[in-house]
Each structure stands twice: as C-alpha cells, then as structure tokens.
C-alpha cells in the first residue's frame, strides 16, 4: 500500500519511498501553498464584485416600499385635510 500526498500539479509524493531530495519536496510544497493562497484570494475577491449590485437592489426595493407607504398616506383624507390646514395657516400669516 502506498501513501500518496497529492499536490497542485497532480504529481504525488510517495511517502514510503522518499528517493527525491528533501529540497525538491520542500519546493513543491511551497508551490502548492502559494497556489492554494492564490485560489483562496481569488475566491474571496469574486463575491465582492456582485455585492454592490445586490446592496443597490435591496436599497431600491426598500425605497420603493417606503414611497408606496408615503403615497398611500398622502392619498388618505385625514392627511389631505391636515396638510391643507397647515398650508392655509402658513399663507394666512
């Protein structure tokens, strides 16, 4: 039975037979760590690109809902009468 450690380049290191120099294995492990770091940075950077668009959409939906509530309030007779009285008082001064 062979124990294989798979690296990024698809070449495995046979842990039972370490015929390769230790320096070569260290370089391959460093390369694998660098590639993993690069992939992690790429994966964490991509969701940020669409975040502004999603946040913009949420703000637009909230603003539209708030506008709908204001329109409904301003159409009511009580609010119309209140606003009309305020304007009449302001103009009579």
What does this entry look like structurally?
By secondary structure, the protein is mainly alpha-helical. The chain has a domain at 51-92. It is built from two helices and two strands; from the N terminus they run ββαα. A two-stranded antiparallel ribbon has the order 1-2. A hairpin with a 5-residue loop joins strand 1 (4-6) and strand 2. This is DUF4244 domain-containing protein. Keywords: Membrane, Transmembrane, Transmembrane helix.
Secondary structure topology:
Layout: E1 4-6, E2 12-14, H1 22-75, H2 77-92
Antiparallel strand pairs: 1-2
Evaluate the radius of gyration: 33 Å
The SS-based structural class is: mainly alpha
**Total strand count, please?**
2
Can you tell me the residue ranges where pLDDT is under 50 for at least 5 consecutive residues?
Answer: 12-16
Tally of individual helices = 2
User: Helical residue percent?
Assistant: over 70%
Strand content: 5-15%
The separation of the N and C termini measures 99 Å
Order of strands side by side in the largest beta sheet?
Answer: 1-2
Largest sheet: 2 strands, antiparallel
Rounded mean pLDDT is 77
Q: Outline, from the CA principal axes?
A: rod-shaped
> In sequence order, what are the helices and strands, one letter per element?
EEHH
């Amino acid at each position: 039975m062979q124990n294989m450690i798979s690296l990024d380049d698809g070449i495995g290191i046979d842990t039972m037979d370490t015929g390769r120099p230790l320096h070569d294995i260290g370089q391959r492990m460093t390369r694998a760590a660098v590639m993993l770091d690069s992939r992690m940075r790429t994966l964490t950077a991509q969701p940020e690109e669409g975040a502004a668009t999603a946040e913009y959409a949420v703000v637009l939906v909230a603003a539209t809902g708030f506008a709908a509530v204001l329109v409904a309030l301003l159409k009511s007779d009580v609010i119309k009468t209140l606003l009309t009285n305020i304007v009449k008082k302001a103009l009579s001064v």
